[in-house]
Request: fold
Amino acid sequence: MIRRQQLSHITQLVDGFAAVAILGPRQVGKTTLAREIAESRKSNYLDLEAEDDRAKLADPGYYLRQHQDKLVVLDEIHKVPEIFQTLRGLIDEGRRKGRRTGQYLILGSASIDLLRQSGESLAGRIAYTELFPFNVSEVGSENLEKLWLRGGFPDSFLQSSDRLSHTWRADFIRTYLQRDVADFGTRIPAETLRRFWTMIAHVHGGLLNSASLARSLEVDNKTITNYMDLLVDLLLVRRLLPWYANVGKRLVKSPKIYIRDSGVLHNLLRIQDFESLLGNPKLGESWEGFVIENILSAAPADVDAYFYRTAAGAEIDLVLSFGSELWAIEIKRTTAPKLRRGFHIACEDIKPTAKWVVYAGEERYRLRDDITVLPLSSLMDELAQTAQ
Reply:
C-alpha cells in the first residue's frame, strides 16, 4: 500500500468544510483514499454506479437526513447531478444544528470546471481538490523509470510485469472509450475518439493545431474543440496555456497539449517496455510531459501553469505562477544539460523569481548563480515546502 501524499491535506479539508470534492480520472485511487478517511470517523459510503445505492437516493433528502451525524461519501457523483440542489439544503440544515464541517465527501471523475457547473448551488460550502496518479515522491526516486514507463495509475504501476501493466492500460483506454465517455452524455463513436486520442499522443508536447487535426479526422474545427474539451474535462489531456506578458514581442498563442499520464501515452504510441521507450522519437516529449505532471502534483493549490514561447524562438518549458513567485523551469532528459540562448532571452523577458533545470541526473548543483540544476524529486520537495 503506497501512502498518498494528499491524505493529510484532504483530511484537513474535510475537517474545515461542509463538503469536499475529490476529483480525478477513474482508477486513480479516489475511492481508496475516501474509504481511508471515512474509516477514521462515523461514515456512510454510497457507490452511485451501483443500482442498490442509487435506489437509496430515490428520495435523497429523506435518506440523507437519516445520516446527518455521519460523513457521507458519494462516489461517482456525476451519475446523479441533480442531487447537488438537495445537498445545499441539507448542508444549511446541518449548519443551523451546529455541524459546519465534515458532512459530505464527493468523488468525481471529471474536472473542477465540469463538476462546478452542476455544483454551483454549493458555492461557499464546498472545497475542491484533484487527486493525481502516483508521483515520484510517493513511489521513490528508485522507481522513477518504472513510473515513467507505466504511468501513475495504481493498478498499472503495481502490476507484477510491464506486460501486465500494458494490458491493464489497454483495458483502461477501452473502458473509457466504450463506457465512461457516454456517462457524461457525450455521443462520440468510440473508434473516432480512439483515433483522436492517438493523434494527440503523436503530437504530445507540441502546439495544438486544430486545423491539422480536423483535416486528418475529416471533421470541422469546432468538432475538434469539442473532442479536446471532453478529454481535458475527463482529466486525460492537459492543455498547457501560453504565458501572456506585455514584453513587446510576438508570443505564441496556441496551447501545448499533453497526454496527462505517461503510461497511457505509451500505450497509445504502442511502447511496451523501457528499451522501446528509449528508442522512440517521442522520448523527449514523453519525459517533458511526465515531469510536468509530477511537478504539478506537488505544486500549491493556487499555482497557475504555463509555457513561454516567442515567435523568434525564446522559450521556457514550464512557468509556474503562485503568490509572489514566478518560476521558470527547463526540462532536459540528458544527464549533462546545456541551456539554449532562447531560455536566457525568455527569462530576461518575464524576469522569474527562480530558475530551475530538471534533468535525468541525481546531483543538485548550480549552473550559474541564478540557475539550479536538480533531479525531479528535489524540485518537487521545493514545491512541497512552498505549499506548507
Notes: The longest helix spans residues 162-183.
